[in-house]
Amino acid sequence: MKKCTTTTALVRMLALVVLLLLAACAPAVAPTTTTETTTETTTESEAGSGQAGGRLVISTNAPQILLDPTTTTSNNDIMLHLNLYELLYRVNRDGTELEPSAAESYETSEDLMVWTFHLREDLMFSDGSALTAEDVVFSIERGRREESLWAWLYDDAGLETVEAPDAQTVVFTLNKPFVPFLSYVAGYWAAIFPKAALEAQGDTFFDNPVTSGPFMVKEIVQADHITLIANPHTLTPPLLEEVEFVLIPDDNTRILKLQAGDIDVAVDVPASQIDAVSAIPGLTVAAYPFAFASGMTLNHAKPPLDDLNFRLALNYAVDREALIKAVLFGHGEVATSFLPKGVMYWSDSVPGYPYDLDKAKEYLAQSKYADGAEFEIWTTPTSVTNNEIATALQGMWSQLPGVTATIVQLESGVMTERRTNGEHWMTAGGFSSDVVDPDQISNWYLTGYIHQFTNADISAVQPMIQAAQIEVDPAKREQMYADIQNWAWESANNISLYYRANQWGMSDKVKDLWVDPVMGLRLREAWVEQ
Amino acid sequence: MHSAPPVYPLETVLGKYILRRLVQLIPVLIGVSVVVFFMIRLIPGDPANVMLGERGSQEARDQIRTTLGLDEPIYVQYGLFVMRLAQGDLGDSFVLRRPAMPLILERFPRTLFLAVYAVVLSALLAFPLALISALKKDTLADQIIRACATLTLSMPSFWIALLLIITFSVRLRIFPFAGYGDNWREHLLYLFLPALSIALAGSAVFVRNLRAAILEVLQSDYVRTARAKGLSSRTVFIWHVLRNSLISTVTLLGLHVAYTVGGAVIIETVFAIPGLGRFLLDSIFARDYPVVQAITLLLAVLVIFVNLLTDIIYALVDPRVRYD
Question: What are phi and psi of A379, to 5 degrees?
Fold first, then answer.
């Protein structure tokens, strides 16, 4: 009798486990309605048009929180900084131009070497103290100090001195004419801090910083969450009363959290889940324009990639439409230029490399490696997308007679080290721009830091980039960048693959949340339907 | 003529044994510090490159290397590390720019809580199932328990974790997930599913181990003798069978705590628990040498102490075990 009871109980437990497993495997919510994924999910907001008050919970995939802009390059930290700290100028919503922020105006000398900014009056920090030009000078100088991760940026711009002739005026003096300079003070690295408080507290200041932006820190639990509250001293107060950023590195967990209604916004919805999340009633996937380009960086010094025709053959043998369908489930756009599409002066005059296997074979036949060649594609094991891209490319290039690509997975630190030693053929990856002006990416990717990995012949493009840095006429400058992009295309400098939007999952109750193309999350106008 | 060896009280012997093990800790820690220090530096990947990413000039990289003391010869770096270690200073995190030890001590209780919680759940699940399985050997109940143990053991923990989240958090909304909570009650609720994810795999091992041990002891002469003396089945089972069967399971439980603390990376990532495992993984990727060194040393100390504790529990469970 007892045996029977125990067995029956166990059978019931087993049945329960099976039921739970079945329940877990079934679709979470029946896709009864379809929410359209669009690049126009939010409309232009007017500050004050939404409901004031409310609390927003955003989940990011950050491993930790770094509130000192000079110590981080993480997009997750940038999102916080741009809501905590003021900048002189900032990127507008669609990334087409720069708009005044802490500064109300600026002027330049005729030779473009002196830039003078006039601050708005009555600016205050979150502790009620006045924000003056001295604070701006201190903050910029701090960003230029040797241990800052962004000192190089001011060096690139040729910044000599920054001074405050009076409380409302900041004067930058450069050692060369530099048209994109406004973009270089419109990034989070140029955040404004209170000189007195930061000098007094040192690095501990960032445990609970006095802020100049629309929000201030209420609570921070490292690696877990940070809670922001509206800064009562800001000139244009935000509508939201409180915003909590919850750190959830795992993509699946973050999306489940959104599905469970525990969070309002989940950043970076994986491409494989965009359609499923969009189908859930009450949720939307917003696609924000993103200054990002995915592609393969090639080492021109390493055979067979030293041959232009071979590089062209590889480019024409890539079916980018198929790649986007396979890797991004269709949520992407074929890249024609190395320049990300959200950046100013991206040119549609660049034809790209439409998939043409016959043409690819012709170029291969004209190359030094007509009989075929072997090379490696390097990826990191942690990047699922890059590994899928590498696998797809490996298959596509196997259509070229005698061409064999081998995929090699390397931990990111190891890859950087070996890449620096010039051991690589090509690496998979993408990059995003920190500024909307094309100078930074053009300089960095073609002739700057990345050039040490491409070893490309840049004798033709280097003067073009330098000329574009001092051209004042926007129309001429646009043409110059079109020429630069066409140079990269003609020389098959790299293998551009796709552009994609920033896909964020969110509750329908979230309104007027916007992310600009350089990852500037704008919370000032955002609100939550009560 | 031989005199009988002196018999010391257990407390004295145990005290000496603990002291000896603590002294043995010193060379072990020195060995661990050497291995950890050089191993992390043997991995290719310059912290300056990792910190700067694909931005910045060579000058900026050189400056960061100087600031972090990485431009010194490796033996000088080790000397400085040992000197600081002797003063209880494990250096500053390269990434968070704070002393490494407080950062680790902030996260350690969360992971330890999770590990202990998981082991407690494992024990609660495993003991009754192992007893049923052993006492009802080869019955349907035994077969089901053994099949379930094999099933849970073969399922990856991250998959179990996702199933538990979907079932108990998203659908039934019984348990919260992702995070740690703000107080003890919340800790227990938030960490239940992560602990269960670990416990399911752990309990499968315990069930199989304890079942085998019980079956072995049941066949022993002293159990037969005890039964022949007329002791009740209950007394025989509790005082002779169960107590002797527990020795190997106690070892496993101890090892499981140490293993869970060191290997909680996946569960901490899936459940977004700001614990030590996630911190270690992120620090390895970031080449944050001071943090990696400090966590590894802490884990080494923990493993040694857990082993010591396990050995002490042996004596309490089994009077035959002595430390002389």
Answer: -135, 170
